[in-house]
């Protein structure tokens, strides 16, 4: 028989379990835990909301400074980076997962911002990564790429200079996010200089484990790890190549001479095929075999420069720079449909939630369309602020959007949680 105190404790525990929603899902890094920008299968978020009236808005939190990084969401909270050009700081911000309250802000770099970046870039574009215990945060600062390992409570474990990063021809800044794989954290630092490469550091010590030399060429792509043709591969496009490496050793698996010089998007895959899009100097979308046969399967001239593609089995979706959405069959590149959505201007990548695709534009519009290869099916168009550069994230029946309201010096960034309210 239970003692009264134990009955009371059990009753309190049950009350808390009923009062607090379950936080089952996480989004630990750029493009999520699977690297495909798919929300978990059980995720259900609204396809309509109103930022002005508050309809379906769980919370809206002002974010200091500016950044294009996507928030990551783990059990301990929500984390995203920001930078303040006036105070010349680059920081990591922690928010409470339920209320959206800013818990803390930790300045990681001060007075070392790049002298020049592209007008559409920010000083805080890379998305942090989480290894299950700690965070890895990268910044372009002090003419180098720096990586910081920091706890979820703000204690810096180590901070390392990964490589010099001093672009000469194009001073557009930086955007590649760190990638955690077991006990390695992989960082891209591709530019027109001698240190251009992919770097793997030991997550515990920050010491370099391997380096892959890359061409002296400014490239902005984030590498990604996927299982293609039965093999785990570290994939990246750009520098006139489509390339695969062994993620553990950095050994070259295969390379195809295709794509273009500068790519911002991340590789996507479908079964035995891998795809990417880019736009400088040549514009196009390319698909190559992922089995090492070094075969380009198909290509077209559609340009998705900043934004990545999105795959479902046997099909790939794209939203081009000119605002036209496409669906192609991955086996041969056959165009299933195309449809203009808006007038152009997109930096955020489309994401899949259930059978819906969410597309955010630089003008602050969010389009929801059906993830159907049979026909184009629009579901909603919602104005959500005045500008969106960060890719949306969907976790635990909430859609998280980093949006800006206002323009120029009057622009204020917010992180908005769309979906069910906290209890």
From TrEMBL:
**Signal peptide residues on this chain, from the entry's feature table:** 1-24
**Annotated protein name in UniProt:** Outer membrane biogenesis protein BamB
Q: Where does the record place the Pyrrolo-quinoline quinone repeat domain? A: 129-302, 314-369
Q: Which Pfam families match?
A: PQQ_2
InterPro entries according to UniProt: PQQ_b-propeller_rpt, PQQ_rpt_dom, Quinoprotein_ADH-like_sf, WD40/YVTN_repeat-like_dom_sf
Q: Out of the domains of life, which is the source?
A: Bacteria
Q: Could you tell me the keywords of this UniProt record?
A: Signal
SUPFAM superfamilies documented for this protein: Quinoprotein alcohol dehydrogenase-like (SSF50998)
Q: Which Gene3D superfamilies match?
A: YVTN repeat-like/Quinoprotein amine dehydrogenase
